[in-house]
């Protein structure tokens, strides 16, 4: 049975921040652009869930004053932000003791979004042409042909003049069959490039109120014991929802008893009340099929972020890289995804 065949100027693979930003720029320039996303939602590693008083970010949260792209995007979309609260002391946990240090020694000035970071993704997707974003449509193969690139999904083939890969490079080469057409060195670099957030679980503990603030704590903490290696207050602008969160290696997060260990650690570091959250959420990005390859925890060569090979198109100038890992600046941040998207869109429009 012959698969349906379509033609488009550009196919973007991935509806995270980078993919949506690239598609926005290309559509604004009059290019017929389609975004293919394996998940049933937009946003990629930007994921927020509603909670009483606001939202909780299970993915990217902060941005900083030296990141103009994300600040401009938020302004354009009307997505409201607020300064991250820094007031209070820092907790430090070792195997011998838990110590309190004066002031916030972990965090610096930054901003977060009132109703969650994924307002950026939802806002961009809403402004794209109807049916431009196709969810639950993973790309299975890409083939370089005489007059473009054929992008294969489970039930269709899309012929495009250009393709923007807005997914982690290691995921792209693990999930998409390129039939050996990628240059050998590029394929190798992509295979070993770490996935931002791919090797960590983000753990959120929600409470009726931010009680640690009453004790003069910032919520910031560092642990040499674990399972959480660093901790932060990620509550809403007025302390609601009241949330502490921390990062743990994905391999620890999958062990039996992990959540009990987290509760015990929070109680030891902050207060016995911290061991009894209203809700405990564990977002393991290493288990996300459309974020991480199976061996993501082994990818640790972060020097490959922003590699020179990602800065130039390949496959006759038709294949472009648009994920945060490929950005020469701010790789691993939302800002990096926006920089990579801008580079990819410019290359397409100049090609």
Topology at a glance:
Elements: E1 5-13, H1 17-28, E2 33-36, E3 48-51, E4 54-57, H2 68-77, E5 81-83, E6 89-93, E7 98-101, E8 111-113, H3 118-127, E9 133-134, E10 141-145, E11 148-152, E12 157-165, H4 169-175, H5 184-192, E13 200-207, H6 211-214, E14 217-223, E15 230-233, E16 242-249, H7 250-253, H8 258-269, E17 279-284, E18 319-321, H9 334-350
Parallel strand pairs: 1-2, 1-12, 2-9, 6-14, 12-18
Antiparallel strand pairs: 3-4, 5-8, 6-7, 10-11, 11-12, 13-16, 13-17, 14-15, 15-16
Helix pairs in contact: 1-3, 1-9, 4-5
Mean pLDDT: 96
Uncertain spans: none
What is the count of β-strands?
18
What is the CATH superfamily label of one domain?
FAD/NAD(P)-binding domain
Radius of gyration: 21 Å
How do the helices and strands follow one another from N- to C-terminus?
A: EHEEEHEEEEHEEEEHHEHEEEHHEEH
Question: What's the CATH topology label of one domain?
Answer: FAD/NAD(P)-binding domain
CATH class bucket of one domain: Alpha Beta
Q: Please count the helical segments.
A: 9
Task: Tell me the overall shape.
Answer: elongated
Helix content: 10-25%
Biggest β-sheet strands, sense, barrel: 7 strands, mixed
Q: Report the CATH architecture of one domain.
A: 3-Layer(bba) Sandwich
Structural class: alpha/beta
Query: Which percent range describes the beta-strand content?
Result: 25-35%
Distance between the termini: 35 Å
